[in-house]
Amino acid sequence: MIKERVLSGMQASGRLHLGNLVGALQNWVKLQDKYDCYYFIADWHALTTGYENPSALHDSVNDLLVNFLATGLDPEKCTIFIQSRIPEHAELHLLLSMITPVGWLERVPTYKEKQQELKDRDLSSYGFLGYPLLQTADIIMYRASYVPVGVDQVPHLEISREIARRFNHLYGEVFPEPEALLTEFPKVPGVDGRKMSKSYGNAIYLSDTPKEVEHKLRTMITDPARIRRTDAGNPDLSPVFQLHRIFSTKEEQDEVAEGCRTAAIGCIDCKKVLIKNVFKVLEPVWERRERLMNNPGELKEIISTGTEKARKIAGETMTRVRAAMGLY
Ligand code: TRP
Questions:
Q1: pLDDT band for position 26 (50/70/90)?
Q2: 201 domain-assigned
Q3: What is the C-alpha separation between 219 and 222, in angstroms, rounded?
Q4: Which residues contact 223 (CB under 8 A, 6 or more apart)?
Q5: Structural domain harbouring 262
Q6: Does one domain contain both 45 and 183?
Q7: Are residues 276 and 300 in the same domain?
Q8: CATH number assigned to the domain comprising residue 44
Q9: Could you tell me the CATH number of the domain that includes residue 246?
Q10: What order do you get walking across the sheet with 78-82 strand by strand?
Q11: pLDDT of residue 2
């Protein structure tokens, strides 16, 4: 039986954290058994906002690659590659730019939102405007059935579908319209209670040492109204409890919630349980990281095999695209 194809990518800007693990990677790992999965590192996308800092780009790509594997993506089951190693993405991006009205790109909500968010950078570039177009090229290149993404990426999927439709209308049916495979996951709070994000400085990174993880969790904020050990707390107001909901068993959740409400346990007791459970998830990641770090040859090998496999499909797609558009 032929498995349906799944494609997804992650932008290489910054190290991966627990939010990325729970929100995306764990789901990617699950999908690799059921689908023919292609996962890639979007390094060109990182340049749309991070073009002034190439050394950071290099570090991020490495971090992503190592963590993709450390969290359980298996190169025997899925294909892992790096966007910039497949120049066909750039060619398709260029050809799609011929048929994409500028207004469509300007109307993608992330365009103005990101400009607002990253006020310190000059994002008036052509490349930044074309972010969703490059993403479209990434997606339709592999003629995938599904694209697992979080809700924040839905507008990008929407424009990908519109562009695929426009291409097919102008030049004949080449691309299936990609479908989002929406990843539902709980909000992962950072150590300050806001959404975990590298830009807030509140993240627990997959590359953090056990000591760092433990320290971050120990000093994490809890119910702000619970000041003294004898005060009763409200777990619903504690970001630590939100993490328990993700990492702890139902029994443990009930126990710490009850203990918090009755002041039977202190915040440190509650955090100890969490630390134990987060460690349970991270320990295999740390072990695999360690092994991979000592084995740079293996990483290179995985990437070149993945790239070769992906490039073959990209080549086939581009042959069809060139023919459809009347190119030699
Ligand atoms: N925009 C995605 C992110 O923020 C990265 C990305 C680039 C992507 N191309 C893609 C995701 C194609 C899914 C499919 O991480």
A1: very high
A2: no
A3: 9
A4: 233, 234, 235, 237, 238, 260
A5: 208-289
A6: yes
A7: no
A8: 3.40.50.620
A9: 1.10.240.10
A10: 78-82, 36-42, 5-11, 146-149, 179-182
A11: 86
Confidence band of 15 (pLDDT split at 50, 70, 90): very high
Question: Do 277 and 308 fall into the same domain?
Answer: no
Q: Given the CA of residue 10, which atom of ligand 1 is nearest to it?
A: 15
Active site residue 112: no
59 and 177 in a single domain? The answer is: yes
Q: Would you call 216 a catalytic residue per the annotation?
A: no
**Residues 57, 83 within the same domain:** yes
Active-site annotation holds for 114? yes
The predicted-structure confidence for 107-165, as pLDDT tens digits, reads as follows: 999 999 999 999 999 999 999 999 999 999 999 999 999 999 998 999 999 999 999 99
**Catalytic one of 77, 187, 198, 272:** 198
Least confident of 1-5, 110-114, 229-233: 1-5
What would you measure as the largest C-alpha separation in the chain, in angstroms? 78
Q: What digits encode the pLDDT tens for the residues 280-309?
A: 999 999 999 999 989 989 999 999 999 999
Which residues, other chains included, contact 244 with Cβ-Cβ below 8 Å and sequence gap of 6+? 235, 252, 253, 256, 270, 273, 274, 277
The DSSP letter of residue 85 is G
Q: Are residues 27 and 49 in the same domain?
A: yes
pLDDT confidence bin for 69, thresholds 50/70/90: very high
CA of 215 to the centre of ligand 1 (A): 32
**Whether residue 309 sits in one domain with residue 184:** yes
271 and 214 in a common domain: yes
* C-alpha 44 – ligand 1 centre gap (Å): 11
Q: What is the mean pLDDT of residues 175-198?
A: 92
Side chain identity at 267, as an amino acid letter? C
The single residue of 114, 187, 272, 309 carrying the catalytic annotation is 114
